[in-house]
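Chapter review: from sequence to fold.
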Amino acid sequence: MRAELRNLRAPGVLLTVLAGIALLFALIGLGQHHDATQWEIYTDGSSQLRSPEVRATYCANLAPAECDAAIAQEIRWNDDFGRELVRDHAYGAATQRPIGALGVVMGWLSSLLGVVLAAALAAVLIGGEWASGTARVRLARTPRRLDFVAVKFASVLIALVALAGVLWLSLAAAGPVLRQLYDVPPTAEGWSAGHYAEVQAGRGLVVLTAYAGLATGVALLVRSSLASFAVTCMVGLAAIGSSAAKGALDYSPGFWVASWMRYATNGAWRDHVWPDTFPMGNAGDPVPLDPALGLLGLLGALLVGALITVAVFARRDVRS
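The C-alpha cell string follows.
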C-alpha cells in the first residue's frame, strides 16, 4: 500500500488536481454569476418600484387608485421573488463561506464532475501501470488478484477524497474574492452552513466511493489509460441521460445519486450539474426516491460491479 501512496505524487495525479480546480472554479463562476444576477434583478426592482420617476411613467395612463393597486401588486410579486431567492438559493452564499464551501464541493463531486475526476485518477493510477508493464510484473511475481483489486480501489478512493480536500481548501481560500465579486442572495433565517456541509460531506463520501469503484473496475478491465477514462465518462453521461428518460430507466444509477444527494428539482443544473434529474413539475416525470432507496441502489450497484470486476479480472491473462 505504501507503493500505491507514493504513486499519488505522479505528475498525472497533479495534473488531475489542477484540472479539477480549474473545472470547479469555472462552474462556481457560472453559479455565482447566475445568483448575483437574480439578486440584482430583485434589488433593482425593489428600488425602481418605489421611485417617483418610475411611478410617473408606469402610471401615465392610470387613475391614482388604479396606479396604487398596480404598483402594490408589482411590489408583492417582486417581494415574493426575493423570498424565493433567499429560500432556494442558499448554495450561492454557502460557496462564499469556508465551511459551506465543503458542502458545495461535495455536491459538485457527486455529479458528473466527480465521475470525470475519478476516471482521470484511475487512468493514471491503474491504466498507467498497464501501459508501463508494472502491473504485469507485479501480478506475475505475486499473483493475488483480489488483493491487487482491493489496493487499487483504495488508492483511487484515497486520491479522490484527497482531491475533494484540496478543492475545498481552494474554494474556502477564494471566499473573500467571491464576496467582493458577487452579491448573492443571503441565506434564510435558521439556515446553517455547518449542517449543510455535514450532510453534503456524509452523503458525498458514499457517492465518491461508488465513483471510485466504477473507475477502478473499468480501468482494471480495459487496461488502457485513455480508453478507461473515456468509458468511465461515457457511463457517467449515460447515467445522466437515462435518469431523465421515462419508464424503466427512471430508476437508473443517476436517479439513485440524485435521490440520495437530495438534489433540488429543476435548479440542479446550476447547483451540481445533474440536469433536471427528476423535475417534478410535469405529469409523468419520475419522482424522487426515498434517500434510503437511493443509497441501497448505489451500494447494490457497487457490490455487483465489484463482483463482476473480480470475476472477470481473475480469469484474464496477465499479458492481455
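Two observations follow directly from the output. Confidence is low (pLDDT under 50) at residues 265-287. The two ends are 24 Å apart (CA to CA).
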